[in-house]
């Protein structure tokens, strides 16, 4: 058996429309930035492979639509997530104010086994705009919000200038992996299903 284990981690990216979710993902996976804004319809995902210690990780990063008319799609996309990344624009107070709503909505729809310990990460994006002069959400305010949610990690990013993007996603991968390890505890000793009979989700008890 190979010493390397390949692990698929599902990461959900949430936040208001226009905060830069798609741009962050494209910068991280494809190393490119587009000035043209195109709203995500429904949801889309990209994958990125990386190695953490002896584990080969495939990050499956889901980009969800920020518009409210698509929020009903949440259940299908959120289930089975290993980590949730919340993104806001440091220059738009409304996108910060809506973090609580996104947070609660995710927990309600994803229904993780232990909502208090489920891993979240917060990204304050677009720190490059106007040299930082137009920002309205301070780093202190963002960190206070993170503390109120159980000390979740926080990064300030710029998808355009590629600031902190790799560091943030590495933290996301490590956080998701730690959560996945904890999930493993529950499944020790259970024989793995063969691929053709594999079922996702719970067991018929």
UniProtKB/TrEMBL annotation:
Compartment(s): Endomembrane system; Plastid
Lineage top rank: taxon: Eukaryota
Membrane topology of the entry: Lipid-anchor
Pfam family, one: Ras
GO cellular component, one term: plastid
Keywords, comma-separated and alphabetical: GTP-binding, Lipoprotein, Membrane, Methylation, Nucleotide-binding, Prenylation, Protein transport, Transport
Molecular functions per Gene Ontology: GTP binding; GTPase activity
GO BP field: protein transport
Family: Belongs to the small GTPase superfamily. Rab family.
Protein name according to UniProt: Ras-related protein Rab7
């Amino acid at each position: 058996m190979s010493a390397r284990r390949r692990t698929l981690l599902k990461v959900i990216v949430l936040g208001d429309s226009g905060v830069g979710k798609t741009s962050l993902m494209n910068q991280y996976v494809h190393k490119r930035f587009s000035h043209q804004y195109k709203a995500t319809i429904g949801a889309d995902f990209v994958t990125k492979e990386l190695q953490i210690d002896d584990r080969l990780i495939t990050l499956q990063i889901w980009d969800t639509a920020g518009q409210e008319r698509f929020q009903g799609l949440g259940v299908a996309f959120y289930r089975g997530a290993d980590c949730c990344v919340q993104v806001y624009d440091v220059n738009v107070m409304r996108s910060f104010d809506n973090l609580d709503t996104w947070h609660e909505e995710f927990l309600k729809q994803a229904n993780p086994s232990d909502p208090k310990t489920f891993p979240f990460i917060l990204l304050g994006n677009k720190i490059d705009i106007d040299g930082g002069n137009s920002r309205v959400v301070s780093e202190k305010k963002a960190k206070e919000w993170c503390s109120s949610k159980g000390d979740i990690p926080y990064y300030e990013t710029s998808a355009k200038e590629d600031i902190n993007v790799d560091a943030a996603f590495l933290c996301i991968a490590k956080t998701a992996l730690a959560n996945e390890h904890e999930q493993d505890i529950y499944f020790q000793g259970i024989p793995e299903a063969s691929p053709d009979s594999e079922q996702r989700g719970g067991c018929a008890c």
